[in-house]
Amino acid sequence: MEIKTQYFGTISSSDKEFIHFRDGLFGFADLKNYIPLAFENNSDALISLQSVEDSSISFILMNPFQLYTEYMPILSDEDRKLLDASYNDDNISYYVICIIHDSMEDSTVNLKCPIAVNTDTREARQIILDNVLYKFRHPVKDFIKKEK
């Protein structure tokens, strides 16, 4: 299948590569299938999550653990069931949506509502974490190490 993307032109892909959101993403409930495209080979640090149904929709995702090693998302029992996840989370990967601005000072990540992906089934959900430390718009600059 040919898919038009925002950052990689037109690519060929199989539906086996898709990530499926049964309920869509918040604000995009009608879009269910996405393809993750890494900006750098063999790295999930920065990903374009491209909608298969609407080529104009692509989200920039980051691996939150590369930004914030103390990040500890906890799945609710309902989310775990909907993701068909085991209780040890070995098959769950987490990503956070980024809002990238011209200035890194203004760029943010949403630590409150990460995307959880079952890497075995490729089912995904955007979840809401019940932790006051995580914000909807957390400045990326807070995670960048300052040079001495």
Q: Main sheet: which strands, in order across?
A: 3-4-5-6-7-9-10
Radius of gyration: 15 Å
Number of strands: 11
Describe the global form.
globular
Order of helices and strands: EEEEEEHHEEEEE
Structural class based on helices, strands and sheet pairing: mainly beta
Instruction: Report helical residue fraction.
Output: under 10%
Task: Report, as a whole number of angstroms, the end-to-end distance.
Answer: 49 Å
Strand content: 25-35%
Parts with pLDDT < 50 across at least 5 consecutive residues: none
* Biggest sheet architecture: 7 strands, mixed, barrel
The mean pLDDT is 90
Number of helices: 2
Write the layout of secondary structure elements.
Blueprint: E1 2-4, E2 10-12, E3 19-21, E4 33-38, E5 46-51, E6 58-62, H1 64-67, H2 77-82, E7 92-99, E8 108-109, E9 115-118, E10 123-126, E11 138-139
Parallel strand pairs: 3-10
Antiparallel strand pairs: 1-2, 3-4, 4-5, 5-6, 6-7, 7-8, 7-9, 8-11, 9-10
Brief characterization of the structure:
The protein is mainly β and 148 residues long.
Descriptive tags:
2 helices, mainly beta, 148 residues, two-stranded antiparallel sheet, 7% helix, globular
Describe this structure in words.
With 148 residues, the protein is mainly beta. It is built from two helices and eleven strands. The chain has helices spanning 64-67, 77-82, and strands spanning 2-4, 10-12, 19-21, 33-38, 46-51, 58-62, 92-99, 108-109, 115-118, 123-126, 138-139. The strands form two sheets. Strands 3-4-5-6-7-9-10 form a seven-stranded mixed β-barrel. A hairpin with a 7-residue loop joins strand 4 (33-38) and strand 5. The longest helix is centred in the middle third of the chain and has 6 residues, at 77-82. The radius of gyration is 15 Å and the shape is globular.
